[in-house]
Hints:
Elements: H1 11-16, E1 23-24, E2 30-31, H2 40-57, E3 61-68, H3 74-77, E4 92-97, E5 102-107, H4 112-126, E6 131-138, E7 147-149, E8 155-157, E9 159-162, H5 173-204, E10 210-216, E11 222-228, H6 235-242, H7 263-271, H8 278-284, E12 288-290, H9 297-301, E13 316-318, H10 320-323, H11 331-344, H12 347-363
Parallel strand pairs: 6-9, 12-13
Antiparallel strand pairs: 1-2, 3-5, 3-6, 4-5, 7-8, 10-11
Amino acid sequence: MNSSSQLEPFPEIASSLKPGLLETNRRGKTVGLHQRWLPTATMWAELEHCRKMAELIEEPFTLLIVTSRTAISAKTLHPLPLYNLNQFTDVLGPIGLLDRKRLGLMIRTNCEDEICKFVESVQELLGSGLWDFEVSTYPLALDKEMLIADPAGRLSTLNCSSMQPLFALPTPLGKRAIDVMVSSLGLLLLLPFLLVVAVMIRCTSVGPIFFKQRRSGLGGIPFDIYKFRTMVVNAEQHQIALKHLNEQDGPAFKMRSDPRVTSLGRLLRFTCVDELPQLWNILKGEMSLVGPRPLPCEESNACRWWQMRRLDVLPGLTCTWQARGRSMVSFDEWMRMDLDYVRRRSPALDFQILLGTFAFLISRRSCEPTESEAPQPISECTS
């Protein structure tokens, strides 16, 4: 991480990232590492501070997650010999409980060799029998395989992951209940109509009925989204030739008159019928009726870091900018609308967005088919 001078706008972050394994309490007494375990709430506050800092300067930060096979508590933490890690004074940050079975150790370096040495030392002190070790990085996982040696000298691959799932917010039970009820009833009542659409797609163009694409879901975890196919087969292979016609800034690709769209596909997009198979995604719990539209994984990973907070909630079938009938806005404005929803989400806001979406569909105000089914952008009638 950068020096604390870069953190002046966030003094609370700077104080939490100052190097050194020894701290001074309010009475001026030096406190050792093994005596400064942070409780769960304080540790999560530290993580949130570091997240804000990472988004500000766009530098990743790393957390070593140590998972116990049994429940742990503050009382069981004190005897742990982590105070022997004094050699890592400039590497080790705050230590605290994440939950009943997970302990988090903040790491102040992104050097893979130093991370491996640190993990090996922690593993040697704690023993590998009752603990599992995982290196989690924000916002994306380390893309290089790292090997660590256990005390016996045996090499093993260090488990690396993205920290985004840690910040994922739970879906309220009431919201989930409505999603299940509406999606199940919708699939049941619309089944005959969906079958007719499937037959029409099969009879009017060559290729599969459904279009499936990997997109980033809650916490950045990928899932397969389903839509009725509205483009020619291998449409993604033709997108490179159309890149100069892109009408959307940012990582997204949008065209009002995409030549890859079939004749029936234009009708499906205009009526937004192509989105109906996503009721299945909602029923499975991968999506919600209302939430930020899921982006293709490549596009989501290309977002600026502050924009990735949209992954804190379940993606949805519709959200703010669809309800406002704004199919073409700047990418930053689109992301700000999504983040505004993440901050303000509530049953009342969901109901307001759903009403706005239905009103938009009925009035058909500038509802243009614009989504690319390539593994890149999104641009769709209601999403």
